[in-house]
Known about the structure:
Blueprint: H1 2-7, H2 31-56, E1 71-73, E2 77-79, H3 89-129, H4 153-157, H5 161-165, H6 189-261, E3 267-268, E4 274-275
Antiparallel strand pairs: 1-2, 3-4
Amino acid sequence: MSSMRNAVQRRNHRERAQPLEREKWGTLEKHKDYSLRAKDFNEKKKRLKTLRQKAADRNPDEFYFGMMSSKTRNGGQKVADRGNKPLSQDVVRLLKTQDAGYLRTMAQKERKQREKLEQEFVLGDEDGASARVLGRSSALDANGKHTIYVDSQDEQRSFDPESWFDTDSKGLSQRFNRPRKAVGPVGDDNEHTEATANGTKQQRSCRLIDAELRALKEERALRKKRRREQEARKTKLEALKARETSLMAAEQELDLQRAKMSNSVGGINKAGIKWKVKQRKR
């Protein structure tokens, strides 16, 4: 009969779910959850009872020598001694002297780097500005400028755009396909030149256009590269200046602290009272 009882399908008993009106409180607490919570509560209750009994039985005259060097803060938090020994005033003054020497050395190093970078920055500005601007706005250049870079200011002063582009004053207003200066051959060669001019005019124009576009791209790339280099120099220069200022301020503060330790200058003590060194009347 037991085998037949097991063969019959039985009802699946499911756990009771949380009601819909209490769904915001999460899943319904089961007996095993309640047991764990009750066990934790009883342990804490027993521990608190033991602490209360110890506090009631405490001897108010109890004393240990460790109480002299230990302190409490924030409602009973013990602050123990870490074993650090205070340094003498002479040792502290010597350490501050060494710190001041280190700060002075680092400030001098930063100052040299800043001066060197400032020279490079100024030279870069002079080389980048050594150019002659020609023409107005054009479709090939958004700024409408034609910049020629030279190596020095002397070349800038003696720069001749007509000889550079091999054209006259009218051709300077054009960005590409500028007319060349006529260096005409003498004698019968003029006829040969006129005969071949029509055949090579179209080819020469294309070559000139390609050369001008190539030169324009190289010019833009060079200008962009120089601008990026100058921006990098400027950022690094600002960082060096800020670091040098911080080092100098720290050095001055150390000098002031050393002077206060030697009682050579006045100041404000821990009580907030201003004082100054008495000087002998002359």
